[in-house]
Write a structure and sequence with these properties.
The protein is mainly alpha-helical and 153 residues long. The protein has seven helices and three strands, in the order αββαβααααα. α4 (69-86) packs across α5. The termini are far apart.
Length: 153
C-alpha cells in the first residue's frame, strides 16, 4: 500500500462543452505535475475544438462559463425566436436568422481577440447600437434587468 501511495500518476482533467458535437468546443484542461506529454493531450482534445490550459482550481469556473454557457446562449436564442414569432415571423425563418446572427456575432467577437482590435464585448454592443435607435433603447432597458439575473449562483 505504501508503494501505491508514493506513485505519482499523470492526470489530465478536461472540461469540454456541448459544441464538441460539431468540433467547436471551448475545452479547458488542467494537468498535475506528473504529466509530461501535455502537447499530445492538447492535440487530442483539439480534435473537438479549442483548448485552453488552466489551473485545476479554475475548473469549477470553467464549468460555470464554458460547460453551462451553451445553455445560456440557447436560452437567449429561444427568446429571440419567440420574439420573432410574436411579431409575425415564421418560426423556421426566425430560427435561421437567430442561428446565423449568433454565428456571425460569435465570429466578430472571436476575431477581435488578439487581433490588435481587442474590442471589449461592450464595445461590440455599442457598435451595433445607433444613437437613439431601437438597439440602444432596448439595451438600456434590459441591462439592469439582465444584471439582476445572475448566471452563477
Amino acid at each position: 500500500m505504501a508503494l501505491l501511495a508514493s506513485l505519482i500518476i499523470p492526470i489530465a482533467r478536461a472540461m469540454p462543452n456541448m459544441a464538441a458535437l460539431v468540433g467547436e468546443s471551448a475545452t479547458c484542461v488542467s494537468f498535475n505535475t506528473a504529466v509530461t506529454r501535455k502537447n499530445e493531450v492538447k492535440a487530442i482534445l483539439s480534435s473537438v475544438g479549442s483548448v485552453t490550459e488552466v489551473d485545476e482550481s479554475a475548473l469549477d469556473a470553467v464549468t460555470a462559463i464554458a460547460g453551462n454557457g451553451p445553455a445560456y446562449f440557447f436560452y437567449l436564442a429561444d427568446n429571440l425566436i419567440t420574439a420573432g414569432e410574436k411579431i409575425g415571423m415564421d418560426r423556421s425563418v426566425a430560427k435561421e436568422l437567430v442561428a446565423q446572427t449568433a454565428y456571425g456575432a460569435s465570429l466578430l467577437m472571436k476575431n477581435s481577440i488578439g487581433s490588435g482590435n481587442d474590442a471589449d464585448v461592450k464595445d461590440l454592443i455599442r457598435r451595433v447600437a445607433c444613437k437613439g435607435g431601437t438597439t440602444e433603447a432596448r439595451s438600456e432597458e434590459h441591462t439592469s434587468e439582465l444584471q439582476s439575473h445572475s448566471f452563477i449562483s
